[in-house]
């Protein structure tokens, strides 16, 4: 438990005090946000705001996690290392996309296909290695079974597991990316979801079959270390949110959104709560669905739209809602979604 507190505190400290320095460095080099002309006109004032803030999110969470192990003397788990590699890879894809945008001074970075291919390749590598490295109880970081609030009896097989890992990573990372359209929106929602994974990891550790053998116990490898990792990401997001909240002095960019989305997917897969990520990340799901609905209806109806603009947060901007109002109300939705997810997780344990 000490590791959770240390990781969260160090990550928050580094993110909070390190972000101003990153803002100055990015501003000095002119690495500012490129605003699309077809978006809400209120966003034009944000043009030039430093982007690629995901650099500090990744740095702070990594340092917080590793220093917590140095302080506690606990061995770093292979499950956490695999998620960190996933985050680093997706952050690299996002960084390349951000870099191309700021260097070209236009909102076009990597093409959609290039970005998806990069994400899929990294997710596939994660899926392959996550089904290896069994421990003394023959538990691998990621199970070959589909999981909801715990492993189900549905065995997927090695190939399907890798494909499923790709789908989860693509959905989660792009969901966070789509949500990152208003000041502090994605960061605040991510904090709540990571905190939920801290609670889930701690609970699974306390009810682990290796500690408390019984009909309700959890067969999960490294749950406590994954809780430490989730705490590190949550702390980094909290410190960053201070500077990312309206009016934002820095944006996380694709560097941050793809990395955070990948971390959420990685935690869900290794904690055996894959389908539970849907309610836990309810806001990300809703916003992603708004884009799918808008695009699908536009094609099927010959140019008609369901929303004034997608993602959903921009629809509410165009009907007159203030940015801060939208963010706060969407945070409420995110909080309710996390509460629902945790309720489902606990309810299954009670009923089991």
A few lines on this structure:
The chain has helices at residues 2-28, 54-72, 78-104, 112-130, 158-179, 185-206, 223-244, 253-270, 277-280, 282-300, 312-318, 323-351; strands at 145-147, 151-155. It has 352 residues and is mainly α. The chain is globular and about 55 Å long.
Which SSEs are present, and which pair or pack?
Layout: H1 2-28, H2 54-72, H3 78-104, H4 112-130, E1 145-147, E2 151-155, H5 158-179, H6 185-206, H7 223-244, H8 253-270, H9 277-280, H10 282-300, H11 312-318, H12 323-351
Helix pairs in contact: 1-2, 1-7, 2-3, 2-7, 2-8, 3-4, 3-8, 4-5, 5-8, 5-10, 6-7, 6-8, 6-12, 7-8
Please provide a written account of the structure.
The chain has 352 residues and is mainly alpha-helical. The protein has one domain. The chain has 12 helices and 2 strands, in the order H-H-H-H-E-E-H-H-H-H-H-H-H-H. It has helices at 2-28, 54-72, 78-104, 112-130, 158-179, 185-206, 223-244, 253-270, 277-280, 282-300, 312-318, 323-351; strands at residues 145-147, 151-155. It is globular, with a radius of gyration of 20 Å. It starts with a helix and ends with a helix. The mean pLDDT is 92.
Could you say which structural class the secondary elements and strand pairing correspond to? mainly alpha
Counting DSSP H or I runs of 4 or more residues, the number of helices is: 12
Distance between the termini: 26 Å
Instruction: Supply Rg.
Output: 20 Å
- How large a portion of the residues is in β-strands, by DSSP E? under 5%
- What is the N-to-C succession of helices and strands? HHHHEEHHHHHHHH
């Amino acid at each position: 438990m000490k590791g959770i507190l240390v990781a969260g505190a160090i990550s928050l400290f580094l993110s909070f005090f390190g972000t101003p320095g990153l803002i100055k460095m990015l501003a000095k080099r002119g690495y500012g946000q490129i605003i699309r002309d077809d978006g809400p006109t209120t966003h034009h004032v944000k043009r030039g705001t430093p982007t690629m803030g995901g650099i500090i999110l990744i740095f702070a969470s990594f340092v917080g996690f590793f220093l917590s192990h140095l302080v506690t003397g606990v061995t770093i788990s292979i499950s956490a290392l695999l998620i960190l590699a996933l985050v680093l890879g997706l952050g690299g894809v996002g960084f390349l996309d951000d870099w191309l945008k700021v260097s070209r001074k236009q909102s076009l970075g990597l093409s959609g296909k290039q970005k998806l291919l990069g994400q899929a390749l990294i997710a596939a590598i994660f899926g392959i290695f996550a089904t290896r490295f069994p421990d003394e109880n023959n538990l691998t970081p990621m199970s070959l079974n589909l999981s909801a609030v715990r492993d189900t009896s549905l065995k997927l097989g090695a190939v399907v597991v890798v494909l499923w890992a790709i789908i989860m990573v693509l959905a989660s990372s792009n969901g966070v990316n789509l949500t990152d359209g208003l000041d502090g929106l994605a960061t605040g929602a991510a904090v709540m979801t990571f905190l939920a994974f801290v609670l889930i990891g701690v609970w699974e550790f306390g009810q682990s079959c290796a500690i408390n053998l019984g009909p309700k116990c959890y067969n999960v490898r490294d749950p406590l270390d994954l809780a430490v990792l989730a705490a590190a990401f949550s702390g980094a997001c909290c410190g960053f949110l201070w500077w990312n909240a309206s009016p934002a002095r820095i944006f996380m960019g694709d560097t941050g959104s793809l990395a955070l989305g990948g971390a959420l997917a990685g935690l869900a897969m290794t904690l055996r709560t894959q389908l539970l990520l849907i309610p836990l990340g309810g806001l990300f799901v809703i916003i992603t669905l708004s884009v799918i609905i808008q695009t699908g209806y536009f094609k099927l109806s010959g140019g008609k739209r369901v929303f004034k603009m997608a993602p959903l947060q921009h629809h509410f901007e165009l009907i007159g809602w203030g940015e801060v109002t939208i963010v706060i109300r969407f945070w409420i939705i995110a909080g309710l979604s996390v509460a629902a997810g945790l309720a489902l997780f606990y309810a299954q344990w009670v009923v089991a």
